[in-house]
Amino acid sequence: MHTTTPTDTPTGAPLLSLLWLASPTLPIGGFSYSEGLEAAVHSSLVHDEASASDWIVGQLWQSQARSDLPVIAQALPAWHQHHWARLQALDDWVRHTRESAELRLQTEQMGRSLMEWAKSLQDATFDLSAVPAALRQPTYPVAYALALSLQWPVGAPVRDAVLAAGFAWAENMVQAAIKSVPLGQSAGQRIVARLCRELPAAIDAALAVTDATRQSFSPMLAILSARHETQYSRIFRS
After folding, report:
1. Number of domains in the chain
2. Residue 193 lies in a domain
3. What distance in Å separates the CA atoms of residue 81 and residue 140, rounded to the nearest whole number?
4. Spatial distance between the Cα atoms of 152 and 161, rounded to a whole number of angstroms
5. Does 63 map to a domain?
6. Which H, E and C letters describe the chain, residue by residue?
7. Which residue has the higher pLDDT, 66 or 226?
8. How far apart are CA 221 and CA 59, in angstroms?
9. Could you tell me which residues come within 8 angstroms of residue 68 by beta carbon, excluding any fewer than 6 positions away?
10. I need a labelling partner for 138 at 20 to 30 A (CA). Which of 91, 96, 145, 218 fits?
């Protein structure tokens, strides 16, 4: 039986790494957040398959493609280069642009969980002590970029890595819709199909974002998130 050595690069390994990071089984707690969707259901803004599909696609374009996905794209090479000042600036931007307590707690909790996941791998290329203390508990987009940097080779297409991150977000949102609207599995798959058609262009838009054009401005989402904090009955943390 062949035993893979550290110098081997098995065929398909980079692709498997992206599938791993996009998996809903990644132990970071993403399943417990709806990112305002549950509040939108409570307010009857989302009430069926069509409205859920429109809501998630709108959030992809108006929020993810303008903020978190560009941060992941920009932080990935910074982790490869150990560009601590750049990473700190990106992390600060994420924290300062969360528009509710829930949204900030989400990005901080999922970021911490990703760092714990990274430590649990016992990867010889990852030494947490070499990371500045201020970056040892980064926000989710910055932590996700670290996870990518450990699995995705230097020089490999950043677009593919960010596409995997976008799909991970989309799949989680569809599962939240299935539980909260509620919807059937077939309806959920139709929404996934639509998101798969939208994601490539959304990722291209995210990769074109610069520091000057990156933004996080979703007033209705912020209002719904704030309302959700005191919502009487809820199954999600956001």
Report:
1. 1
2. yes
3. 19
4. 7
5. yes
6. CCCCCCCCCCCCHHHHHHHHHHCCCCCCCHHHCCCCHHHHHHCCCCCCHHHHHHHHHHHHHHHHCCCHHHHHHHHHHHHHHCCHHHHHHHHHHHHHCCCCHHHHHHHHHHHHHHHHHHHHCCCCCCCHHHCCHHHCCCCHHHHHHHHHHHHCCCCCCHHHHHHHHHHHHHHHHHHHHHHHCCCCHHHHHHHHHHHHHHHHHHHHHHHCCCCCCCCCCCHHHHHHHHHHCCCCCCCCCC
7. 66
8. 9
9. 94, 140, 141, 169
10. 218
Rounded-to-integer distance, Cα 139 and Cα 72, Å: 11
- pLDDT digit string, tens, across residues 184-223: 999 999 999 999 999 999 999 999 999 999 999 888 888 9
Residue 229, classified by CB atoms within 10 Å of its CB into exposed (0-12), middle (13-18) or buried (19+), is middle
Backbone dihedral angles phi then psi of residue 123, each to the nearest 5 degrees = -80, 125
Domain that holds residue 211: 36-228
223 Cβ neighbours under 8 A, 6+ residues apart: none
Is 28 a domain residue?
A: no
Token reading at 181: 């609207």
> Could you tell me the pTM of the whole model?
0.91
